[in-house]
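Weekly puzzle thread! Below is a chain. First person to post its structure in token form gets bragging rights.
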Amino acid sequence: MARPTNRGAATALLLHGEERFLVDERARATLDQWKQDLVSDFGLDTMEGQGLTAARLQDAILQAPFLDPYRVVHVRWLPANKAESVASALNEIPPTTRLMITVAGKIAASNKTAKAIDKAGGIVEEMQHLKGRALSDWAAKRAVEKHQITPAVANQVVRSAPPDLSIIDSELAKLAAYQASGNKLTPDVVAQLLAGGREDEIFRLTDHLLPRPTAQAFEIARNLTRGGIQPTSVAYRMARHYALVLEVKARQERGESLAEVQDKMAEHRFVIQKAFEAAQQAEPARLEDALKAIRDYEWEVKSGQVDADLGLDVLLTRL
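Winning reply:
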């Protein structure tokens, strides 16, 4: 908690780091506590970090409270590469202002904004990426304290889900709801319920493939393989998506509307809608080339010519 540590120290907290889930949760808990003593809507000033200027932030910090005992100024997701641009606004933080800054990413201790918060008597906290034992411990504690399920179930979630705290927490919440309905969470039941989470991730992956794979596509694909799905299985699902978009593209070129395509194809209407939107910007030749690249990748893996995991990354760069 950001708190004065000496006379004249500011109540200010800057949160940054690779674990955005933890940054967001820490910020939300702190803000909820700070807002308890506010009596009006004027006491909270929330500003988006993107495009925020030092002058605008300084005006908000120096503004005196109207009806409230203090003002809460909340800067949401200040871009890490732009964090130093608001440092000059922090030269003076009055005792009637409580300042919360969340940074979208990790910043160095030498960052001017971090140093300004520290100099003012506030606190700078980094939420480091959790992995290995730290991730398992976090999940077990989360399972018991928030979701009232056992650490054994949490361990099964960690083994099956991508190493993403938001996904793990979502899976724990789903399992807790199942248990709360009167059902028993056996290992087999948990495995069946977790499969749906992986399907959601597959859908997210295909949503980031066209017109070219995005950075999110690479991240999601890696998370899927770390979560236990074979790289060739991920490639197979990608191929199915490209084949679907190629078929929808052919129907578009014949003049069929979205409704007509949805009526004639067996896939879910929402899936067809997403494919229809993707097909509008896709070229048939590129879709065919992508299918050939995936076919070649699968052959190279099965013949022992390439490592499956590394080959999947290379494949995404070729699509």
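Puzzle host: Confirmed. Bonus trivia for everyone else. The first strand starts at residue 11 and ends at 17.
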